Amino acid sequence: MRIRNPNPDEPDEPDEPEARPEEYEDEPEVTAGHVEPDGSLTFRVSSGVIGVKFAVAAGLALIALIRGIGPEFVIGLLAAVAVAIYALRDLLGRDRLRADPAGLRIGTGFGAHRRLAWADIERLRLDHRSRLGTRSELLEIDAGDELYLLSRFDLGADPSDALTVLEAMRPG
Question: Residue 130 above 70 pLDDT?
Answer without folding.
Answer: yes
